[in-house]
């Protein structure tokens, strides 16, 4: 054939491809080149005769496509011969080819090698690998062996860099398993030899011409790239669990790369930059790429644990730093080297540290840790000598801190085998005992932490601050603070791990009654007593903690100066939280840093609290002086002598000091009782008296500061207070007061006398009641002074809610003579406060009132009830709401009343439950009228549904005295739902995601039904075994089924698959199917069931884990009910819906399990759902199986697949779980046992996927 003509057409298409007007047609022609029957011959001719680099590039793409598509016709022998021919072409013409053409040529060699891997004899594979290794070791630029090896590693890894071969998964798996065992170590070792040779030549190259230096840099970079790929390799495992994980696992949020041509870098001519093609999709085999260092097998021990190899990689990084100075060299060499260092710093696992003939595992661990520490120490010292704040230092600073964190956290996880004093050594004790550099290493790390904080402070004082603010938002987003966060995380892990071990050690010693004796380092087997070593290490941490704390405090105080100086004021403390799209406070944004500071503070509690107490007192005294000056000058000249900048700075610094004190004094916690930390107790107990107890004095100082800030509104200084400072003080008290105020001494083995005396109960000799009374006065003053500051009032109310959760404190509050005036003040001045806090105020007062005597409680609740009724305004008095319904003031009154009603219902408990029910029954007609007047989407409707949600959530159905009351409650909810349905019938929201209000309305309605189901069912397994009477259970079933009907009738199907709505809706359907399947069958029409089937189809293989899990639960339970009880008595339309729906669910679930990347944690539940559907629709299952067999590409694959499917059918027929399931009876049968199906199901899925899943 005349290939000259073909080449001319190819070159013309390449030229047209460069012009926008002809690009589409040219691209179509270039793609068709690879589909030619003679693409290989034409491509070889183009490589030999074309002078157009892009023509050679597309010719190579055509050869690759032809080999992949026509491999069966080409044959393994011809494929290998073609590969060798192309490899020789690369070796002979590499210097004359453009870089992107050479890169593509080597890529095609790698693709052909993998495609022929299974058909190539072992000896021939090894010969090819040895040839690559020889070229890597002996050749210079361009090193063809390195480029081919790099592409071959990418192809075999199975990740997003892997090309499409349209072959079963087992082919890729077999290639990877064979390659990593016999060939990867050889390539890794060859790359290490190149790195070693380059280190030897680096000194000589410094005086050589620049081209020589660039050659060395390129070769070093290419070798490091291979090392980096090997160190990030995810190894296969012979363990069954990991084989299955590799079969189904995938990274959440990623997707398997697809499309003809596979990898992005080969989509267009480009340079041979090995870093361009980052892994952006998930891999078939590597679900969490590089989140941790891989678990290397035992065979890699001689390479990875060699001190020479480890040290050489550190030296290679130092040499790579100079590569960036060459103008013609692409940056990235030092970055690759840093990634290698991060990986080797986290080497872990039992296999790699398996004992050898001369050394046990602990010796290997100690030697490895010593080498890493020595080399990291050199890097740390080098980093400390740099200008840490300079942008040129970013890569090295951040990577070094990541390296340190990876090493420390990995060492904490690795448990040594040696025992000391009969117990396993703690990892840090092991390092201290076996690695002499340990203390020096941690000392240098602490020094680096301090220097990073100092560098951040230097940035604040420098001229680049404005540019950093513009580029990064603030200094906390600059890389220096990011590096600090890395080390703070590692340091926190060290402190927490030691504290936990010491606590467990004390508990174990107390359990056996053995006294804790500190022994000398040589008193036990292994050379060190763990307790003694850790105590010594804790003293070391205590010394370093002082320096870090001091630097952090100085930095924060300086940041306050900068923010105030820039005029940011309080807004500096409200930064945009990208995760939530809300303005978040300092105590939210900097929670991790403040927790780290608290850990440091508790290492030396007295010194820390002393520094913080002094800071707080000095700022508060300075504020008092400023305010005194203001008041003294008020009569002469307002504002004379007043310095706004000074006051703002003092408020800002005092606010940050309060944040640090609050975190140091106690931890946060909502789900369990929080106690005073042990270090705080010990420090307090060691104090000589109340006035010398720093913990007590810090809390007292905060109370005094709050009292000072909440001066009388008539005071001249009241106008100069800081609402942010007041809010922060109330936040600190919300955290501290439930822990310290009126503490229960029985919770502590040795409570502090000073804390008990200051905040304890009267019977314990404490003055806690006086503190609580004073706090109530401060609350009233806050509402009086800052009545329009929503954040201040919300935090104040939040503190009251936290105190209400502590019965002793709540009882003291309600018995205080100040509580009644406070309640009267709040309820009487509700109109002065923002509407957003009304509900919270009502909830707090109602919860607190529950702890008062019965008569007082009844009186308080009556007042709150009247306040709620007054909140509805004229709506509660007018029979005809049509007139005022659209009046803005009337709407505001209604919204306020509904908000307060919602807050009151949120305070329901066993003490006020009957009164809450009475209130709900009383306001039910009003709610029904509002739902009938305002259409969906209106604020009144949303708030009314919110009230329904709170009633369903907090009103305990089981507390109602008789069936009549229960029926009344059910019919109240059903009446509200019917009114809502009739008002909104025909109105369907079409703008999915745009109408936030409608989404909120839908989710509130879903939550209402969900809470009602769980509330009414209680601990009953289902409605057939409900504790309530049959009429009550049936009535609630009708109400809840009608709620599901409303959701589907009034919501567009596309809106139900919005992620948040879908998650909540799946939860509701799961609960309804579990508890209420007969009621659903009885009340729901076929149209709604069709909508439910569509939602279940959307839930299969959904990216949201909870949605997938609940989808398979619903299918399993619903399928069990239909299979065992049948629906023959149902209407024909309903039977058709279930038959069609089950067939669609079965087909999609089978397709998903066999072809899609799947979360391994969901395989079992999804498999059980598949089996249940298969039992319900056996004919359709066999039809799906026949379709799979008929689509098999070869007869051999069809036979294997048929055998696998036949075995699965036989296993289902003989499985005990299936037999037992089919014999069950009952109104609501239990679903099939997924655990009993594990073996046959996983065997079927793994074997079938190995044939069907292709790439």
From TrEMBL:
Could you state a single Gene Ontology molecular function term?
A: nuclear export signal receptor activity
Q: Name the SUPFAM superfamilies for this protein.
A: ARM repeat
Chief subcellular location equals cytoplasm
Q: Which GO terms describe its cellular component?
A: cytoplasm; nuclear pore
Q: Name one GO biological process term.
A: protein export from nucleus
Per UniProt, subcellular location reads as: Cytoplasm; Nucleus
Print the keywords alphabetically. Answer: Cytoplasm, Nucleus, Protein transport, Transport
What family is reported? Answer: Belongs to the exportin family.
What is the designated name of this protein? Answer: Exportin-4
**Species classification:** Eukaryota, Fungi, Fungi incertae sedis, Zoopagomycota, Kickxellomycotina
């Amino acid at each position: 054939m005349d290939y000259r003509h073909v080449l001319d057409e190819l070159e013309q298409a390449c030229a047209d491809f460069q012009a926008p007007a002809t690009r589409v047609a040219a691209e179509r022609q270039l793609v068709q080149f690879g589909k030619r029957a003679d693409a290989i011959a034409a491509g070889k001719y183009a490589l030999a005769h074309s002078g157009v680099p892009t023509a050679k590039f597309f010719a190579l793409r055509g050869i690759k496509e032809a080999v992949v598509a026509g491999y069966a016709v080409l044959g393994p022998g011809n494929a290998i011969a073609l590969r060798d021919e192309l490899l020789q072409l690369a070796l002979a013409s590499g210097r004359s080819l453009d870089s992107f053409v050479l890169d593509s040529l080597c890529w095609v060699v790698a693709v052909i090698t993998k495609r022929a891997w299974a058909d190539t004899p072992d000896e021939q594979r090894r010969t090819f690998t040895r040839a690559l290794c020889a070229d890597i070791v002996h050749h210079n630029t361009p090193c063809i062996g390195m480029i081919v090896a790099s592409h071959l590693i990418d192809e075999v890894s199975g990740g997003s860099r892997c090309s499409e071969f349209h072959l079963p998964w087992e082919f890729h798996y077999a290639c990877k398993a064979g390659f990593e065992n016999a060939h990867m170590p050889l390539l890794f070792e060859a790359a290490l030899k190149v790195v070693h040779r380059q280190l030897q030549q680096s000194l000589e190259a410094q005086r050589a011409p620049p081209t020589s230096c660039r050659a060395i840099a390129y070769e070093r970079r290419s070798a490091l790239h291979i090392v980096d790929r090997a160190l990030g390799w995810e190894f296969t495992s012979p363990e069954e669990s990991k084989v299955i994980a590799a079969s189904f696992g995938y990274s959440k949020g990623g997707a398997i790369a697809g499309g003809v041509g596979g990898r992005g870098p080969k989509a267009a001519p480009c340079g041979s930059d090995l870093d361009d093609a980052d892994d952006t999709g998930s891999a078939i085999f590597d679900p969490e790429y590089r989140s941790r260092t891989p678990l290397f097998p035992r065979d890699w021990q001689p390479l990875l644990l060699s001190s020479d190899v480890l040290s050489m990689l550190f030296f290679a990084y130092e040499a790579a730093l100079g590569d960036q100075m060459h103008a013609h060299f692409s940056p990235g060499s030092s970055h690759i080297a840093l990634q290698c260092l991060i990986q080797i710093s986290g080497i872990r696992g039992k296999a790699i540290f398996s004992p050898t003939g001369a050394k046990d595992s602990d010796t290997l661990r100690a030697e490895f840790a010593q080498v890493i520490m020595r080399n990291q120490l050199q890097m740390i010292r080098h980093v400390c000598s740099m200008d840490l704040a300079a942008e040129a230092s970013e890569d090295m600073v951040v990577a070094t801190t990541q390296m340190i964190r990876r090493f420390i956290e990995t060492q904490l996880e690795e448990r040594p085998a040696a025992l000391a004093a009969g117990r396993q050594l703690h990892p840090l004790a092991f390092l201290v005992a076996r690695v002499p550099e340990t203390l020096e290493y941690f000392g240098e790390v602490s020094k680096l932490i301090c220097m990073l904080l100092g560098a951040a402070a230097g940035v604040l004082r420098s001229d680049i601050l404005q540019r950093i603010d513009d580029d990064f938002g603030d200094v906390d987003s600059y890389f220096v603070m990011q590096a600090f966060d890395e080390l703070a995380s590692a340091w926190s892990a060290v402190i927490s791990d030691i504290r936990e071990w010491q606590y467990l050690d004390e508990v174990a010693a107390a359990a056996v009654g053995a006294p804790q004796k500190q022994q000398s380092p040589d008193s036990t087997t292994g050379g060190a007593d763990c307790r003694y070593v850790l105590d010594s290490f804790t003293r070391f941490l205590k010394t370093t903690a002082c320096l870090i704390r001091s630097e952090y405090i100085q930095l924060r105080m300086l940041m306050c100066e900068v923010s105030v100086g820039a005029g940011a004021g309080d807004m500096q403390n409200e930064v945009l939280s990208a995760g939530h799209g809300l303005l978040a406070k300092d105590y939210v944004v900097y929670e991790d840093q403040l927790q780290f500071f608290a850990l440091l503070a508790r290492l030396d509690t007295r010194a820390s609290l002393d520094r913080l107490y002094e800071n707080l007192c000095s700022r508060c005294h300075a504020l008092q002086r400023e305010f005194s000056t203001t008041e003294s000058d008020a009569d002469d000249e307002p504002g004379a002598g007043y310095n706004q900048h000074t006051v703002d700075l003092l408020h800002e610094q005092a606010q940050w000091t309060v944040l640090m004190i609050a975190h140091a004094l106690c931890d946060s916690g909502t789900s369990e009782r929080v106690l005073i930390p042990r270090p705080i107790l010990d420090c307090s107990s060691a104090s000589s008296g109340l006035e010398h107890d720093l913990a007590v004095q810090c809390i007292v100082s905060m109370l005094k500061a709050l009292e000072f800030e909440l001066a009388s509104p008539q005071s001249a200084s009241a106008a100069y207070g800081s609402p942010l400072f007041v809010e922060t003080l109330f936040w600190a008290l919300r955290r501290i007061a439930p822990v310290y105020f009126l503490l229960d001494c029985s919770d502590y083995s040795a409570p502090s006398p000073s804390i008990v005396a200051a905040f304890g109960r009267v019977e314990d000799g404490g003055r806690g009641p006086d503190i609580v009374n004073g706090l109530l006065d401060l609350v009233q003053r806050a509402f009086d002074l800052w009545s329009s500051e929503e954040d201040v009032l919300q935090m104040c109310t939040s503190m009251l809610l936290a105190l209400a959760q502590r019965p002793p404190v709540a009882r003291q509050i309600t018995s205080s003579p100040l509580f009644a005036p406070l309640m009267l003040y709040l309820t009487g001045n509700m109109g002065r406060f923002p509407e957003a806090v009304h509900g919270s105020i009502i909830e707090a007062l109602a919860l607190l009132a529950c702890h008062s005597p019965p008569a007082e409680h009844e009186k308080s609740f009556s007042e709150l009830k009247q306040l709620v009724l007054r909140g509805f305004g004229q709506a509660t008095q007018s029979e005809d709401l049509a007139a005022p319904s659209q009046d803005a003031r009337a709407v505001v009154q209604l919204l306020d009343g509904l908000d307060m009603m919602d807050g009151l219902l949120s305070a329901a408990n066993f003490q006020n439950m009957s009164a809450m029910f009475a209130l709900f029954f009383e306001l039910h007609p009003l709610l029904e009228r509002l739902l009938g007047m305002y259409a969906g989407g209106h604020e009144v409707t949303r708030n009314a549904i919110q009230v329904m949600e709170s009633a369903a959530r907090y009103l305990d159905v089981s507390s109602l005295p008789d069936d009549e009351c229960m029926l009344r409650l059910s019919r109240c909810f059903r009446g509200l739902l019917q009114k809502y349905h009739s008002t909104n019938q025909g109105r369907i929201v079409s703008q999915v995601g745009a109408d936030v209000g409608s989404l909120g309305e839908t989710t509130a309605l879903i939550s209402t039904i969900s809470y009602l189901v769980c509330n009414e069912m209680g601990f009953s397994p289902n409605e057939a075994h409900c504790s309530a009477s049959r009429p009550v259970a049936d009535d609630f079933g009708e109400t809840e089924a009608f709620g599901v009907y409303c959701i589907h009738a009034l919501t567009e199907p596309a809106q139900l698959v919005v992620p948040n709505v879908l998650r909540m809706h799946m939860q509701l359907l799961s609960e309804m199917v579990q508890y209420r399947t007969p009621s659903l069958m009885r009340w729901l029409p076929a149209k709604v069931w069709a909508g439910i089937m569509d939602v279940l189809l959307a839930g299969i293989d959904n990216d949201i884990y909870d949605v997938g899990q609940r989808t398979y639960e619903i299918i399993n339970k619903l399928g069990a009910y239909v299979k065992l009880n049948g629906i023959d008595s149902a209407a024909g339309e309903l039977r058709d819906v279930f038959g069609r729906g089950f067939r669609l669910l079965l087909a999609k679930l089978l397709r998903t399990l066999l072809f899609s990347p799947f979360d391994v944690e969901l395989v079992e539940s999804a498999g059980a759902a598949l089996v249940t559907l298969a039992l319900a629709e056996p004919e359709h299952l066999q039809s799906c199986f026949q379709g799979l067999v008929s689509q098999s590409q070869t007869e051999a694959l069809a036979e294997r697949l048929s055998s696998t499917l036949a075995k699965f059918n036989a296993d289902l027929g003989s499985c005990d779980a299936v037999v037992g399931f089919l014999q069950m009876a009952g109104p609501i049968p239990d679903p099939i046992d997924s655990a009993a199906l594990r073996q046959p199901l996983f065997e079927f899925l793994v074997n079938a996927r190995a044939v069907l899943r292709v790439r």
